[in-house]
Each structure stands twice: as structure tokens, then as C-alpha cells.
Amino acid sequence: TKQKLHFHIQSITKRAKRFLDNRAPKLTENVKNAMIMKGGNTSMTVTQALKDIYALKKPSAVLYKKIPNHLYFVSYLQEFFSKKTDSSLFLFGSHNKKRPNNLIFGRLFDFHVLDMIELGIEKYNSLSDIKSSKCPEGTKPMLVFAGDAFDHENEHKCLKSLLTDFFRGPVVPSVRLAGLEHVLHFTALEGKIYMRSYRSLLKKSGCRTPRIELEEIGPSFDFILRRTHLASDDLYKTAHKQPKALKPKKKKNISHDTFGTKFGRLHMQKQDLAKLQTRKMKGLRKRRGPAAAAVVAGETSLKTTEVE
């Protein structure tokens, strides 16, 4: 009995050690998980929108049914929820008279809020409203951002970074062509953000490269930008800091152009061309003995005749 009890305790300890190793800091981070939470007061639009975004984010997401609005934004509860699910992203949905159909996208750093942006839903079509075949669960999407605001305005730059972190999925070394089937398109136009979800179809084109068509699969949102809570420059710098082991080492005499082509410069010593090995031919061989003397005599006779 003592041996069985000792084995049971040892197995739990190993399992706990594996769990802690998985949560420990790594050079290459795990896939960012997201907490998707429904507030105390919500509408049917917000509830269905949270379910659809959860379907896009699965399996790297956790869906909570109901959390009171004023409780989640308490610091110790944020730390509790994020540590429990190992999540660094969150989406909070709420609804009230002042801010109807409200979604808050946010990021966490060191288990505390780094930044968050509030978006209001003006128009929404769910996954079930658009009748078409959907992409498989866990498909890595291609993200497209259109609009000058994503490049020039500070709030839209932060929103672009936040949405990229939220939807980009796992980092993979390579992708097959047939796996590029899900497209998320974000457009910033006239103070609104339009989100559309498409499935790419590979059609026959008569040549080796297929013809690509886009089919809308949902969900689709028309957002309006509301309140923002952005981190300070120092906090952003700390959050984006990379360990020294991940920083690429500088290599001398190697450069890259705008297309990623690698160029190298080699420094060689001065060569002695007299010792350079060339191709050997019979006509270039040196003749020896009487045959060589006869050839030399013939050449001198030819020169004398030419002079005369």
C-alpha cells in the first residue's frame, strides 16, 4: 500500500511539473489564448457575435457565459482569470443604453491590461445567416488590412496590431497552397471598421496557377470606434522586448535587398596567374629533342622568306 501511495504522489508531481513547464516563459511563446466573456447585461446581437468570434478563434479560446461588468476590470480578477486559462488576449461583450452592442478587444502583459479598444456593432450578419460551406476549425487565416488609417492614425495602428495578435493563429514554418482558404479582411473607411470573412476557392484557369475566387462565409461586422485605453511608450517597449537568444546575430559582408535576396561579399588574396592551372591540350604541349629543333628551324626559314 505504501508503494502504491508513493507511486501515486510521484505521478501527480510529474504531471504538475509538466504543467508548470508549459506555463513557464519560453524563447518561442505558445499560441496566444483568448478569453471571450459575456457581461452581465448583453443583447442577442452581442451574445451571437461572441459565439461566432469564438468559432473563428477555436481551439485557442475559452468562452465564459456570464461575468458581471464591474468585476472583470478589477486587477486581481484579471490576474486570476488570465493565470487560470494562460491567456494574454480577451474579448468582453456588453450592452447598455449609452453604449449598445459593445465589444472590448484587449491584450494582457504580465497578467495586467496592456491596451484595450472598444468597438460598437452597427451591423452584423452571423455565421448562420450566410448559407455557405465553412472553413474547418483551427484554420490559420490570412489577414488583410485596407485603408490609410491603419498606417497613419495612432489608434488604428494599435487596433491593427491588436486584431493581428487576436486572429493570426499559430506560427508555422510552411503553408500548403490548399491550406490558404480563410481570409479575414478589415477595412477602415470614413471612421468605421468593416470586418469580412471569406473562403478562397481554387478554380481551374487553364494553366498551372489556379484562379482564385472569394466566397463570403461570415461573420461580417460594421464597427464604429469608441473608447481606447493605450499603454505608454515605455510599457510597449517592455512588452515588445525580445530575449537575446532570439535576436539574429549580425554576419559580416552579408546584405539583403528589398525582395529578401541575400548578397555576400568575398575577400580573396591576390592570385599568381603564372601558376594558374588551365586546361591541357596537345597543341599547347612543349616539344623536346630534335623534333623541336626542326620546328624552330622551319619557323626561322619562313621568317627569312617573308623578309626577302
UniProtKB/TrEMBL annotation:
GO CC list: nucleolus
GO BP annotations listed: maturation of LSU-rRNA from tricistronic rRNA transcript (SSU-rRNA, 5.8S rRNA, LSU-rRNA); ribosomal large subunit assembly
Family: Belongs to the RPF2 family.
Pfam families: Brix
GO molecular function terms listed in the Swiss-Prot or TrEMBL record: rRNA binding
InterPro entries noted in UniProt: Brix, Rpf2
Disordered: region residues: 279-308
Localization per Swiss-Prot or TrEMBL: Nucleus, Nucleolus
Biased composition (Basic residues): 279-289
Keyword vocabulary terms for this entry: Nucleus
Residue ranges annotated for the Brix domain, each copy included: 32-234
Protein name listed in UniProt: Ribosome production factor 2 homolog
